[in-house]
Amino acid sequence: MHEQPVSLDFSRLFAALQCCVLVHDSVSKDILWANPAACDVLGFTLDELKPLKAPDMSSNAHQYAREIGVDWLQRAADHGSSSIEWCYRSKAGENILTEAIAFRVELAQGPVVMVQFRDIAAEQATRLDLLRTESRLQTFLRNLDEGIVVLDDDARVLYASSSAGSLLHLEAEQLTGGDFTRVCDEESAAALREVLAMTERDGPPTDGQYRLRTADGRKRWFAGRWQYIDIESDLRGLLLLFHDITDRVQVEEEHRRDAQYLNYLARYNAMGDMAMAIAHEVSQPIAAAHNFVAGVRGRLGGGADHEALDWGLKNATLQIDRAAQILSSLRQYVVRLEQSEQLIDLNDIVTDCLYFIDVRARQSEVAVAWLPSTDPLPVRCDKVLIGQVVMNLAFNAIEEMTRWPADRRSVTVSTARNGSLAELTVRDLGQGLTAFPDGLIFDGAFTSKENGSGIGLALSHRIITRHHGTIHAAENSPRGAAFSFALPLLSE
User: Fold this and answer.
1) For 455-480, what is the mean pLDDT?
2) Is the pTM of this model over 0.70?
3) Best CATH choice for the domain 126-244 from the list 3.30.450.20, 3.20.20.150, 3.40.50.2300, 1.10.357.10
4) Taking a C-beta distance cutoff of 8 angstroms, is the pair 409, 397 a contact?
5) 8-45: per-residue pLDDT in tens?
6) Does residue 55 have a cis peptide bond before it, meaning omega lies within 30 degrees of 0?
7) Which residues 6+ apart lie within 8 Å of 39 measured at CB?
8) Contact, 475 vs 488, CB < 8 A?
9) Does domain 254-333 match CATH 1.10.287.130?
10) What is the overall mean pLDDT for the chain?
11) Which of 168, 224, 328, 397 could lock 411 by a disulfide, CB 3.0 to 4.6 Å apart?
């Protein structure tokens, strides 16, 4: 068993230290001793070091001035210890950046200040490189179009990049620590939980589309890619990279609506062909029946015995005339839906539609008021398509009024000149726009009718916008809804 080391052994142990050590007088701050490691780093022998002062062995930079060094050593002498970043200068003139710690040590002959220092130049360079790299990464992340979040198994956000916050109009700190499903709509939240439950630790990335809610309440579409990550002693969870694809989704939706619109026009065109054929075929027997009735009445003469028969034939003639009028109106209105623009007054278009509107209104016991503009409203448009919009808005208003008491069933159709625009407005006295979710009135995805498809308003929107006009809905006063569209007026 070894005996306790004697003082000579301690001297040898101290001399073998790889850490650099300088011993200063606690009062004068003169160097009393240095271990071999310090002599090697500074390039001086012990005898050369002893007479040196701070300016002889420190950097010339102002932060390493003698008074600063003396003050540092004095703090250690007064308080027991003090640390500083100090730049020594070697005998060869090389600056050596160090981390230096001074301790007050009580020796037999009195107190001294022992300084331990180590070269940190390499560490400092590495630290600066890391700071530069981190700064670059932060700059890249802030300017990314793609957001980054890491979630744990409970969908709690462990990390969120600045770009993720920007995409959702939040600060990254507002996302961190919260449940990520709170920014998802119901369907996307369910899909997210399914991904969390099914993503394998070493599996391939998973792609999907999600609808997220931004801080201003808007819902936008994002494409996301999931990947499980495990960064030792740092992050472990599900990594989501996501970017905004709302514009792309809207374009796809526009294409889908265009396809629906073209399909509708094809069906409507076929209906027009059939209606024209029926009108042509039926008009001939109606004309013949009218002639036969007229002939019978002529043969009957005016005798009193034939008054009842004459009355019946007279009314039959009136009904035949009414049927002929209906077919005539149908023939004039239903034409092939080719894009055929013409100069026409908006009032004339509404007048042509009034017969069909009145028929629908009488069936539903709804009063329709027509308030035409006293000013001419010349527009260039496809008469049939704009007429279709007029009837869509009027029919919707009439159908809404069927749900209310008979004394309240009123619809008003009006036109007016508004600056450079010709406006048409259809007003009802129903429940207003409360049944229409924000932003869904004209997108074809919503209808308040029990058996409706929701396509009428969407088609109306497409027709008006393609004619360079605008269409909108507002609350009516004192109650109900007001649907309007405006088309550019033509100058004389």
Assistant:
1) 87
2) no
3) 3.30.450.20
4) no
5) 666 777 777 788 999 999 999 999 999 999 999 999 99
6) no
7) 45, 46, 49
8) no
9) yes
10) 82
11) 397
